[in-house]
Design brief:
The complex is a heterodimer of chains A (569) and B (374).
Chain A (H helix, E strand, L loop, with lengths): L1 H34 L4 H6 L6 H20 L10 H9 L7 H16 L7 H18 L4 H20 L2 H13 L4 H21 L16 H33 L8 H15 L8 H7 L7 H20 L7 H23 L6 H17 L2 H12 L2 H21 L4 H8 L8 H8 L11 E3 L5 H11 L3 E5 L5 E6 H9 L24 H8 L6 E5 L5 E6 H20 L3
Parallel strand pairs in A: 1-2
Antiparallel strand pairs in A: 2-3, 4-5
Helix pairs in contact in A: 1-5, 1-6, 1-7, 1-9, 3-5, 3-11, 4-18, 5-6, 6-7, 7-8, 7-9, 8-9, 8-16, 10-13, 10-14, 10-15, 10-17, 11-13, 12-14, 13-14, 14-15, 15-16, 15-17, 16-17, 19-23, 20-21, 22-23
Chain B lengths: L2 H14 L9 E6 L2 H19 L2 E6 L5 H8 L7 E5 H9 L20 H4 L9 E14 L24 E4 L5 H7 L8 H5 L2 H12 L4 E4 L4 H7 L5 E5 H10 L4 E16 L7 H11 L2 H10 L3 E2 L2 H6 L25 E2 L2 H21 L9 E2 L3
Classes of the chains: A mainly alpha (569), B alpha/beta (374).
């Protein structure tokens, strides 16, 4: 009980720290945007407008240069993102690295400050998670607690950035933890609450959306909202594909990775001279997209396509930042496009235009981050408007499942899958996939030279009380495996003097030290035997992993998960 | 100094064309004259003399920094305290015409609330301290729209529900803010959105939707146009509308939604003859009690929340002044504080843009002309 209350208190403390960090981050981005002539306000106030052409090109390019240089100090040579947080929690690895986390936050700050078309919520989530994980490590807590404190940091960051505590709590559960346990709920709720309180006192910002109280959509419009959801899933898919495709393409560029973000910045600046709406987080664009008549249909289509391209370019070529804020802009533009279209067909002035914009926004963002409930709650907490939330619900109903069927649960899951972590079968599999067989490797086995006679081999196995022997040649290479029944049969048939290399069991698979426990279990399904040999890349015998050890590890991991997800204290 | 000698010096200076210096022992206050100075005399100057024994000599100006520039350059500053708009105080401070003024000199509220919490946000500049806020508001004729009344600034642009000609100030300021607000944009984002070509276009589109706009330039025009029934809605300064309503019985009402507030500050010029007394005066004139007394006489909002809550009835005609003060919570619910830093940098460009638009929509360039829509 005391331990549990302590965890809640720790959650609140981490929530406070993460919220302060998030508030500082958001304000620093705003300040940088003002100082570096990225925000429209500073551009309008700049006394020498003729120089804006130069700054528009130079600021993102130089920002990219700095970001590229800083990323060399991260072991993976890329910024860490919420995908890394999800991986750490789903595999129960936890322990997010402080240095890489701090550097990623710094490069995200520079990227956002210099006007790159990237999001700010991803870096905030990762920053909060890193703070949470550091807290758990500082207090020498276990992996379960580490996961909970990570979720606390995430919830507080979202609660602060959006002034939406419920969305923060749900996001931490829906995207990061992916299970619901009372034991985790209380600390996360405490963190989100503290974050919210800090947000309302430190960050003074207008609501992301403002909706007149009079407008209520008509019944037929809800059918349109559902359709927007279905189409929005396709837009989300295009956005995800563009991000992944550009990242692949960047690998083939004849340009060192350090210089790639600078190139992206320069290209972004060039396009921004023509369409400034794509620069930065795009809050002004977001607002205008909710106003009927602010954009023509053609402009909406143009900015929509360019924003997708710009974000793919920036993130693909190595700027640091999130995918959520651009998705908000893209989705809202898409919704506005649908609204404009309906207005043209319908021929009446649109009181409900903002409904279309918000439906489009939810339809695109929910599939991208894999969080339909969070998206709904953000709409609800930001607007306090129930009619709008219902419309968003209509839209998300189709958007999330369609996108999941066609593309994957979220961008993060697709990225992790590409890195070899498949989360589609849940956490049990993720944990096993993340555990290497090397942890269960043993040398306690009978290894014999291939030239050993059957007679001698039977004797050796009998002395060691084993049923299987592993053949290792003079160079230490693994040559196969023989079983006692097989050797006995050979002996009976009068082959006592034959070398055991004649009797190698065919089709016995081998493992590598970095084979996951999950894959090892899959191999075991094809085998009846006591253990599998482990070899390195050059075929050198490393030892064996016993089937019983794998089964025991599986049971232990399942048990830990069960306790974490269903325990109450 | 003997009175005779003082007169002689004054005469001599007058002959030389120099501004008359303040009498040695009197505090020179430069303010706006008229009803405003009368209210200040009763609420601030006379009580200050009573409390300190120091006389106050009021000088009058119509704003602008020319006089101050000349006086500072000649090292002959005849004033100790100046009542300035915040935008002018910012500019004067940047030019080095004002003494730095620390908010540390301010008195706490009667209940002990420190000034930093009691004063409205951004009341303390480097050289100036806000004492009151005045507002540009919309007023409408009570008899123009039977059965309904405008409640939101968007109604200024709603010609279906509120038909009739409007009078607006011939400047981009305030008009652009209101036009964009009518799209239900949150106040906090106004100037960010007005910084984009798209925002400006939306705002001007909204203005262009109005069938008939009378453009005014002098502050007394809008109450007159309303009184004569020439227009049904007009923008103007809240003090002028108050005057028309209360003193001249014009049947108008103020729409407080979307009011654009500007700060009026106290500043001490560089080389003021009595800088110590000037600081004493600023402290005295910005106490909760004095600010509330001032607001009882003229409907400008005290910069202190504690003072806004204490405002009572007008000492002469007994009107409840709270309802007429821009900063009163009932009126200030959706107030916009003019972004003076933004205007300081953009006004000339905005004016060019606005004038070009006026020319486009067929308006004559001369002052105070009707604007026939094409």
């Amino acid at each position: 009980m005391v331990r549990f209350l302590g965890l809640v208190l720790l959650g609140a403390v981490i929530g406070g720290l993460a919220a302060l960090a998030a508030a500082g981050f958001v304000n620093a981005v705003l300040w940088l945007n003002e100082t570096l002539l990225i925000s429209p306000r500073s551009r309008m106030m700049f006394e020498r407008p003729e120089l804006l052409v130069v700054t528009t090109l130079a600021v993102p390019a130089l920002g990219g240069l700095v970001v590229g240089a800083l990323h060399r100090a991260i072991p993976e040579r890329r910024p860490h993102t919420p995908a890394d947080v999800i991986a750490a929690v789903q595999t129960r690895r936890g322990r997010l690295p402080a240095r890489a986390g701090g550097l990623s936050a710094l490069t995200a700050l520079i990227s956002l400050g210099a006007g790159a078309s990237v999001g700010q919520y991803g870096p905030l989530v990762h920053l909060g998670a890193t703070l949470g994980s550091q807290g758990a490590r500082l207090l020498r807590l276990g992996r379960s607690e580490d996961n909970i404190t990570i979720a606390c940091g995430v919830a507080a960051a979202i609660a602060t950035a959006f002034s939406a505590p419920l969305a923060g709590i749900v996001f931490a559960h829906e995207v990061v933890l992916r299970h619901y346990a009372l034991r985790a709920f209380a600390p996360i709720a405490a963190a989100a609450l503290v974050g919210h309180v800090i947000a309302t006192s430190v960050l003074e910002r207008g609501a992301l959306f403002h909706v007149g109280s009079t407008a209520i959509p008509q019944a037929w419009e809800f059918a349109v909202f559902v359709a927007i959801g279905g189409l929005g899933a396709l837009v989300a898919g295009a956005y995800i594909r563009a991000l992944l495709g550009m990242a692949r393409l960047a690998g083939h560029l004849p340009l060192p990775p350090v210089l790639r973000p600078a190139l992206a910045g320069l290209l972004l600046g060039l396009v921004a001279l023509w369409v400034p709406d794509i620069l930065g987080i795009g809050q002004e664009t977001l607002r205008f997209a909710t106003i009927a008549g602010a954009f023509t249909g053609g402009e909406l289509l143009l900015v929509l396509a360019l924003k997708i391209a710009a974000t793919a370019l920036c993130l693909g070529l190595g700027f640091s930042g999130g995918v959520f804020s651009p998705a908000l802009v893209i989705g809202t533009l898409f919704g506005a496009l649908c609204g404009t279209l309906v207005g043209v067909l319908n021929g009446t002035p649109q009181e409900t235009f903002v409904f279309y914009a918000v439906c489009g926004m939810v339809a695109v963002t929910a599939p991208v981050i894999g969080a339909p409930l969070t998206s709904l709650l953000i709409v609800f907490e930001l607007t306090g408007n129930y009619a709008l939330t219902t419309a968003a619900l209509a839209s998300v109903t189709l958007a999330s499942p369609i996108a999941a069927q066609l593309f994957g649960r979220s961008l993060f899951d697709i990225q992790l899958n590409a890195r070899g972590l498949d989360l589609s079968a849940g956490r049990g599999r993720a944990v096993l996939q993340d555990t290497r067989v090397a942890e269960h490797l043993t040398r306690e086995c009978v290894s014999l030279a291939p030239t050993t006679t059957v007679e001698a081999a039977i004797r050796a196995l009998g002395e060691a009380r084993h049923g299987e022997a592993y053949l290792v040649d003079a160079d230490g290479r693994y040559r196969g495996c023989v079983t006692l029944p097989e050797l006995e049969a050979t002996l009976q048939a009068g082959g006592a003097r034959r070398p055991i290399s004649d009797r190698i069991e065919a089709e016995r698979p081998v493992l590598y030290p970095d084979t996951s426990l999950w894959d090892a279990m899959a191999r075991l399904e094809e085998v009846t035997g006591e253990a599998l040999a482990v070899i390195d890349d050059e075929g050198i015998f490393q030892g064996v992993v016993y089937e019983a050890r794998i089964a025991r590890a599986y049971l232990r991991h399942s048990d830990e998960l069960r306790r974490e997800e269903h325990g109450t204290g | 100094m003997a009175p005779a000698r003082r007169i002689l010096i004054a005469l001599w200076l007058a002959l030389l064309g120099m501004p008359a210096p303040a009498s040695d022992d009197a505090l020179g206050v430069l303010s706006w004259g008229g009803a405003y100075e009368r209210a200040q005399r009763q609420a601030l100057f006379e009580p200050f003399t009573e409390a300190t024994g120091m006389a106050v000599e009021a000088h009058r100006y119509d704003g602008g920094l020319e006089g101050l520039r000349r006086a500072v350059a000649a090292d002959e500053v005849p004033w100790d305290v100046i009542d300035m708009t915040r935008s002018e105080a910012m500019a004067a401070c940047d030019e080095g015409l004002l003494e730095p003024l620390s908010p540390d000199l301010l008195a706490p509220a009667p209940d002990g609330t420190p000034p930093a919490q009691d004063f409205l946000p951004d009341s303390f500049g480097r050289c100036a301290i806000t004492h009151t806020l005045f507002a540009t508001v919309v007023a409408y004729r009570r008899d123009a729209f039977p059965g309904r009344r405008p409640t939101s600034i968007a109604d200024l642009f709603d010609q279906q529900r509120f038909p009739g000609p409007r009078a607006l100030q011939r400047t981009p300021a305030v008009n652009l803010e209101w036009a964009l607000l009518s799209y239900r944009v949150p106040e906090e984002e106004l100037y960010r959105l007005l910084s984009t070509p798209r925002g400006l276009r939306l705002a001007l589109d909204r203005l262009a939707e109005l069938d008939e706009i009378r453009w005014w330039e002098a502050g007394d025009t809008p109450p007159r146009l309303l009184a004569e029934g020439e227009v049904v809605m007009a923008s103007g300064y809240n003090g002028r509308f108050f005057d028309a309503m209360v003193n001249r019985g014009v049947p108008i009402e103020i729409l407080w939604d979307g009011q654009v507030q500007e700060h009026e500050t106290w500043a001490i010029p560089r080389g003021a003859p009595h800088p110590e007394a000037a600081r004493d005066f600023v402290r005295f004139a910005t106490t909760t009690e004095r600010l509330a007394e001032l607001a009882r006489r003229i409907p400008y909002g005290p910069a202190r929340q504690s003072a806004a809550m204490q405002v009572t009835t007008h000492p002469e005609h007994g009107l409840d002044m709270r309802l007429h003060i821009p900063t009163h919570p009932l009126n200030a619910e959706r107030a916009i504080v003019k972004d003076e830093a933004w205007y300081a940098r953009t006004l000339s460009r905005m004016r060019d843009y606005f004038d070009a638009w006026l020319a486009d929509t067929g308006c004559a360039a001369s002052a105070d002309t009707d604007c026939p829509e094409p």
